[in-house]
Structure formats: C-alpha cells, structure tokens
Specification:
Layout lengths: L8 H20 L6 H58 L4 H18 L1
C-alpha cells in the first residue's frame, strides 16, 4: 500500500516523467523570435558598443597626451638641473694654479677670521 510520505518507485518515475513533459510543453509553447525586434536590438547594441569604443579611444588619447606633457616637463627639469650643475662645476673649478692658491688662501683667511 503506497502512502503520501513513502511513494513507490513507479510513483516517483511517473511524477518525474510528468514534470519533464510539462517542461517540454512550456518550451514548445514559447513564441518564436521576432526578427525585426532582434534586428533593432542588435543595432542598438552595436551603436552603444561603437560609442563606448570611441570614448575609450578619446580617453587613451588624453592619457597619452598627458603622459607626453609630463615627460616633456620632466625632460625640461632635467635639462635645467644639468645646466645648473654644469654652471656650478665651472664656477668651482679654478682655471690656473694662481687662482687655486688664491682660493686656498681666501679659505684660510676666512677660517682664521672666524676664530
């Protein structure tokens, strides 16, 4: 005797086949695809993708321009630093032995004056 809480194997197989048949019937009852609607959706998607691609390209171009500007500023700063270092080196380096002796004597005199 079969009860509600303990269905037999045949009851379970029958209910499974009924569920499968119901799912198949629902799938077959679905309306067919409307080609005009699909074409408009496809067109909208393509225009949206094209707009996104243009936006990405504009952002990439802006980023490249900012990078180039930053590089040129850095190069100008480096050139200014190099020029300042060369000028300092030229000022610090005496050209003759007399100038070297005069610079040494001036440092010696400054040191004596501090004491």
């Amino acid at each position: 005797m079969a009860s509600f809480k303990d269905p037999s194997f045949q009851d379970r197989v029958a209910s499974a086949s009924k569920a499968k048949q119901k799912a198949l019937d629902q799938l077959k009852a679905r309306p067919s695809v409307d080609e005009a609607l699909m074409a408009t959706r496809r067109q909208k998607r393509e225009t949206r993708e094209q707009a996104l691609e243009e936006e990405r390209a504009a952002k990439a171009q802006e980023k490249a321009a900012a990078k180039a500007q930053k590089a040129s500023l850095k190069a100008a700063e480096q050139a200014a630093t190099d020029a300042a270092a060369a000028l300092k080196a030229a000022r610090l380096k005496p050209s003759s032995a007399e100038e070297m002796k005069a610079a040494r004597d001036a440092r010696y005199a400054a040191r004596k004056a501090r004491k």
